[in-house]
TrEMBL record:
Gene3D superfamilies named in the record: Galactose-binding lectin (2.60.120.430), Phosphorylase Kinase, domain 1 (3.30.200.20), Ribonuclease Inhibitor (3.80.10.10), Transferase(Phosphotransferase) domain 1 (1.10.510.10)
Organism: Pyrus ussuriensis x Pyrus communis
A GO-annotated cellular component: membrane
UniProt name for this protein: non-specific serine/threonine protein kinase
Chain sites annotated for binding ATP: 438
Species lineage: Eukaryota, Viridiplantae, Streptophyta, Embryophyta, Tracheophyta
Amino acid sequence: MISDLHGPSMPFPTLRYMKDIQIVIMRNCSISGTIPNSLGELTNLRKLDLSFNKLTGEIPQTIERASHISFMSLSNNILTGEVPIWILQSKRYRDLSYNNFTGSPSVSCQHLPVNLVSSHTSSENLWCLKKDLPCSSKPKYHSLFINCGGRKMKFDGHTYEEDLSSFGPSDFVSSAQKWGYSSTGVDMSNLDANYIATSLNITRPDLYQTARIAPLSLKYYGLCMLKGNYKVRLYFSEIMFTDDQTFSSLGKRLFDISIQGNLVLKDFNIMEEARGVGKGIVREFDNVTVIGSTLEIHLYWAGKGTTAIPHTGVYGPLISAISVTPNFEPPKKNLSYVERVRSHVPIGTMVGIGCAIAVIIIAIVLLALVILWKRGLLGRQKTLEDDLKGVELQTRKFTYTQLKDATANFDQANKIGEGGFGTVYKGILANGTLIAVKQLSSKSKQGNREFVNEIGMISALQHPHLVNLYGCCIDGNQLYLVYEYMENNSVSHALFGAEESHLKLDWPTRHNICVGIAKGLAYLHEESSLKVIHRDIKVTNVLLDRHLNPKISDFGLAKLAEEDKTHISTRAAGTFGYMAPEYALRGHLTDKADVYSFGIVLLEIISGKKNSTQQTNAEGFYILDWAHVLKSEGNLMNLVDPKLSSEFNNEEIMATINVALHCCNSTSKLRPTMSAVVSMLEGKAVVEEFVLDPNPSTSDEMDPTVKKLFQFCLRGGAGSVEGPSNDSFAALDDIHPFNPHSGRQDDRKGRKWHSF
């Protein structure tokens, strides 16, 4: 191990003859040049740390041969090229953060256990992959309070947010693009070491009971922050050593602290500064400037102090809490006229005036609407243009001529789909880009709202597992959406389309699709600055690119979640068979409705069967019922698609089935979050065996009568609600190819389900 050498740059040393070497640590040694291909010949290598150097060029493909590497850090170098696919798909710790890679990898911000934060130069990537972590929306935060490693709590008049993530070896974790942390380093003697420290000595209920710890590097970020000067307060307490006469009292922790790239404390020793163990200390830094929208606090272990007291792995930076407050007057909320006068006018007077004004306004509006309607001036185009005034578009606007040229005047030969809201055509732009043009049906009045909603939602959301909206076009009373073209259609088409259009989806591919959908939903629910509930997750709305990576589409029914409400009460919308019971029956909408739909999609992908089928004189089939029957009989493996034969990992597929059943729990509170689902599917969290409720009627969601009604809707009422037709089945069968001779009957007025 060699680290933290100060001096001139040096070339990469020759290691090719050290065949039996297991650990290579050359961290912060000013090593320049490229990584040699010969590293791949070190097949016994277990740990490789080349972080904080000046390495350039691409990552050699030969390193893949060193298949026993459990931890690899190439962080903080100048590496370029595309990130190798074998690293992106790795299940082991890989840290490539803070480099200059190119390309647009299909990953999420929390692509655990691979840390890619601030690793790319391309402006087309997610915000978390870009340099300086720019805000993907408008900066709005001017303060920050984090209880590092602890739960949400009140302290000193402020509410400190919880920071309970257990991830640490090579991870980036963000909280709603408000703050996040990037952690690097692993203790080779204990790969499962805890990255949260808990005090055994402190009894008072304050911030110093817990702390986040990292063996090497820990960076906290304030995200989407307003420009200006801030006061940063860092809270510390040494809670892992003792002050008695035991071995644990000999520990010594030293680390450096930088803020906005400037070193503010070197060889910081918490115990010495606080004059004892378990004592809190605060270090304050004033006039910290945020020029862009990101504040960075970096704690770094420079190889000093003890490393094995009270046990191996106790070293590196440790922090208890962070507070950031502005040195400027935060912008005040603009008050409406009513709010400005509310404190000056008696309530009774306001009510009387309000009622009188409301009656007058309603009368005037109704009269105006009647006049405009009779004169034929209440047209569709004006309504849409008015709607679009309130939408902050982040997409380009196409002209009708551009789309006409791209689709050869909307030639029928380029028609690739037809859905509830119109027809979809394949096109090629002048620059050679393949596109899918969704032409909204002029007969659909409800399509206006869907059109505006879809533009507003997708233009504000960017993620590798969400379909990319290129732009829109308004031409007279004709409306168009322009999407990226998806070469492999939808998951529905791949599994249930005509025989000649079926794709060979082996289990690793299906599992990758499941993980991708889960990551897309986790982004919508938890990572995006907008908290979005999709409301129509189904296999027809999951598209596949040329590499069979999944992308969620069709945001026409999506709703924004409200943080201060437990649920939204709204008219049910979506597709029966995928709708959660509490939503279908009561209109109670939370992100757990999407979790339920995802569970049904999982069952379809695993089984290769549609979630519902019905024949004229048959009771029909519903996949969740079937899964519950198989579970009660102890035959869950019979759920697996026979086309997979035996080419799968039994343990992994059984875990995936259990995840699906947990997602489809009739009690919404018992369904996991989508981030938890991602962890379970990727094998980073334990999947508990699903246990059937022996007395379903005791569910706090449904009584027996209501359950029968729900089951009737699922089986007999297969279709969709709140759409321009009775079926949203092809609401985005729309933007991908289809075979008009597939024999699939949709019947757009009343679905004719085929048996499997």
